[in-house]
């Protein structure tokens, strides 16, 4: 699975599954940037073939509804949707 990296402070292993056309995904990325969180992300809608299969399989493990955005933190905690307060609390 190819992930793009955004530099910031190390707040653990943070992976964002997003769509390139999703306003809530853009707001989530902007909030992570504002909080100076280092994270990896993928735009699921820009993947194809085997890579898409791999991304969807990984996302389904954390969020069977396949809703966006989905943030996975340290392979233990999941935040689905743009939940600003929960995101701020998690990374403060």
Automatic annotation (TrEMBL):
InterPro entries: Glutaredoxin (IPR002109), Thioredoxin-like_sf (IPR036249). This is Regulatory protein Spx. Residues 14-76 form the Glutaredoxin domain. SUPFAM superfamilies: Thioredoxin-like. It holds the Pfam family Glutaredoxin. It comes from the Archaea.
């Amino acid at each position: 699975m190819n992930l793009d990296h955004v530099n910031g402070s190390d707040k653990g292993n943070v992976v964002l599954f997003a769509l390139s056309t999703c306003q809530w995904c853009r707001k989530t990325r902007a909030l992570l940037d504002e909080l100076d969180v280092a994270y990896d992300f993928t735009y699921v809608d820009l993947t194809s073939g085997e890579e898409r299969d791999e991304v969807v399989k990984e996302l389904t493990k954390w969020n069977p509804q396949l809703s966006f955005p989905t943030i996975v933190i340290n392979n233990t905690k999941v935040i689905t949707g743009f939940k600003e307060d929960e995101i701020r609390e998690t990374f403060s």
